[in-house]
Model the fold of this input.
Amino acid sequence: MSDDDRIDPSAPPSGAGCVECLATGGWWFHLRRCARCGHIGCCDSSPSQHATHHARATGHSVIRSFEPGEDWFYDYQTETGFEGPELASPQHHPLDQPTPGPRGKVPENWENLLN
Ligand SMILES: [Zn+2]
Ligand SMILES: [Zn+2]
Done:
């Protein structure tokens, strides 16, 4: 645990995709990682916005991008982005996982369904 109690760098990601979307057959646009517990959720452009729901439900206010090449952090409480510590690997979803994802669950008109 770091001295920043919003962030636990030792918590690994919960998996390769949004926990709730995978459980319900949903799909996502981009993925966000809870910096406190590692929960992977979908972004606010996605139909279900599970990352934001997780933050509200748990009080875990900081997310980090789970997209390849992105390492920004964001705090829902202060509504600011910032640079944070190195988190436990993997740093992003598998490179062979499509965006949007997951494979086979994305409707053809997905662009019209973004928030
Ligand atoms: Zn989701
Ligand atoms: Zn969390």
Q: What stands out?
A: Helices lie at 19-24, 50-58.
